[in-house]
Structures are given as structure tokens and as C-alpha cells.
Amino acid sequence: MDTYIILAVIIALGFFSKNLSVWLAALVLVILRAVPFGGPALGWINQYGLKIGITVLTAGLLAPIALGKITLDHLKTMMTSSMGIFSLLMGIFVAYLGGRERGF
């Protein structure tokens, strides 16, 4: 019962804050929890959901490169600035932490 209450609060917060991704994800989880055959799907989402989500987000971030909106000259200009160097170092650090899975 606690699960439904927590997810209902998340749905309400997501709805009122107009965050479609949050309330829709929570609603899907409530539906999967309520139906008898939802257990295996919830287990699969629990096991692979984060990795799939990060992959989709990464693809979204790389899409401008695939579309040709970001060129090598643009990347060179960005990476030689102080903000670009800082961003690159932070990206390397985050990739390192991500490669360690959940073992912070």
C-alpha cells in the first residue's frame, strides 16, 4: 500500500509541476504494479531501466553531431576555451564514476 501512496504523490507532483516524464513514468509503474502480469516487467525495468534511459539520453545529446549541426571546427573552438576544458574534465570524471556502476 505504501508503494501506491508514494507513486501517487509523485504522479501528483509531476502533474502539477507539468513534468510529463515524471508523472507518466510513475503512472506506468502504478499500472504495472496493479496488473497481475506486471511483476516480470517491473523486475526488468528495475534491472535495465537506468542503463536504457542513460543510453537514450546520450543518443539525444549526440544527435546534433549525427545531424551535422556540430562540426569539427565548432568542437575545436569549444574545447580550447576554459569552459570547454572544464566541461571535458567533468565529463571524464562522470564517465569514470559511471563506469564504476553504483560503487561510489
Helicity range of the residues?
A: over 70%
What's the end-to-end separation, in Å? 32 Å
* Estimated share of beta-strand residues: under 5%
SS summary, helix count: 5
| Low-confidence spans | none
Instruction: Please report the total strand number as a whole number.
Output: 0
Q: Would you tell me the overall average pLDDT?
A: 90
Basic shape: elongated
Elements, N to C (H/E): HHHHH
Whole-angstrom Rg: 19 Å
Largest beta-sheet characterization: none
What structural category do the secondary elements indicate?
A: mainly alpha
Short descriptors:
mainly alpha, 5 helices, 104 residues, elongated, 0% strand
Give an overview of the whole structure.
By secondary structure, this protein is an all-alpha fold. The chain has a domain at 1-34. Helix content is 82%, strand content 0%. It is built from five helices and no strands. Helix 1 packs antiparallel against helix 2. It is elongated, with a radius of gyration of 19 Å. It starts with a helix and ends in a 5-residue tail after the last helix. The model has no long low-confidence stretch (mean pLDDT 90).
